[in-house]
UniProtKB/TrEMBL annotation:
Mg(2+) binds at residues 34, 221. The gene is uppS. The active site is at residues 34, 82. Binds 2 magnesium ions per subunit. Its cofactor is Mg(2+). SUPFAM superfamilies: Undecaprenyl diphosphate synthase. The keyword Magnesium applies. It comes from Falsiroseomonas bella. It is an enzyme of class 2 (transferase). Homodimer. GO terms for cellular component: cytosol. This is Isoprenyl transferase.
Length: 256
């Protein structure tokens, strides 16, 4: 399903649970989980082993985020551009995602985690699409942590899909172009109904956004950590949260 197709069912701000953030704790954290390949190479292992260890780190991060009182966690697991990698690596990553969905979903549901997938899920094929739909269904009642996994996700593709759907409706006469503003536009993104990320973390020492949550990150704070993703754990998340708590967010206005 394209982001726009997903968004059409979400335009009205639905009853999305909005867990209250604790003071100084970001409501929504996004993580660009980078460095699996380098982690494996450094150990003389195949890259697939790095991705497997990366999935373990994702499990730890979900647990640590819940314990830290974060209400929304978005993990960047596979970008629109990652399709350019060798077929073997794409196949390994897809298999790993399917395994994660099959083995983790019941535990997530039990722990009050609501799972959503954003991105062009159709590109993974019908079997994965079904597994994703089932996972979203089984975890739909979770209110402790909203976990979003970005799969075949690209910020530019998401924005283009929103523009396409808005143009379609305008052409069909069901949407007045004069009503298009930031709030309306947001409703057509895959993230419709979610709060914007307050903090975006990227591991592995790279300092770029790589097409993650482009629209949504307008006023996010960024923390870059030198750790490779498979080594990530609760202490790294705590350090990033500590850094975030010391930032002054002004949103273009002035401190009093
Ligand atoms: C992140 O690790 C996982 C994905 C992008 C799918 P990488 O595979 O990018 O690891 P490096 O950057 O090559 O070390
Ligand atoms: C970004 O990492 C995408 C994910 C973490 C899923 P990449 O490794 O694909 O990004 P670049 O190529 O270094 O920018
Ligand atoms: Mg990388």
């Amino acid at each position: 399903m394209s982001a726009a197709a997903t968004a059409t069912t979400k335009v009205a701000p639905a009853a999305v649970p909005q867990p209250a953030a604790r003071p100084g704790v970001p409501r929504h954290v996004g993580i660009i989980m980078d460095g699996n390949g380098r982690w494996a190479t450094a150990r003389g292992l195949p890259r697939a082993m790095g991705h497997k260890a990366g999935a373990e780190a994702a499990r730890r991060a979900v647990e640590a985020a819940g314990e830290a009182g974060i209400g929304w966690l978005t993990l960047f697991a596979f970008s629109s551009e990652n399709w350019q990698r060798p077929a073997e690596e794409v196949r390994d990553l897809t298999a790993l995602m399917r395994h994660y969905l099959a083995t983790e979903v019941d535990r997530l549901a039990k722990e009050g985690v609501r799972l959503r997938i954003i991105g062009e899920r159709d590109r993974f094929g019908p079997e994965t699409v079904r597994a994703i739909a089932r996972a979203e269904q089984v975890t739909a009642g979770g209110t402790r942590l909203n976990l979003t996994v970005a799969l075949s996700y690209g910020g530019r593709a998401e924005i283009a899909a929103a523009a396409r759907e808005i143009a379609r409706r305008a052409a069909a006469g069901t949407l007045d172009p004069e009503t298009v503003d930031e709030r309306l536009f947001e409703g057509f993104l895959g993230t419709a109904g979610m709060p914007d990320p307050d903090l975006i973390i990227r591991t592995s020492g790279e300092k770029r956004i790589s097409n993650f949550l482009l629209w949504q990150a307008a006023y996010a704070e960024f923390v870059f950590q030198d750790v490779l993703w498979p080594d990530y754990g609760a202490p790294h998340l705590e350090a990033a949260l500590g850094d975030f708590a010391r930032r002054e967010r002004r949103y273009g206005a002035r401190a009093a």
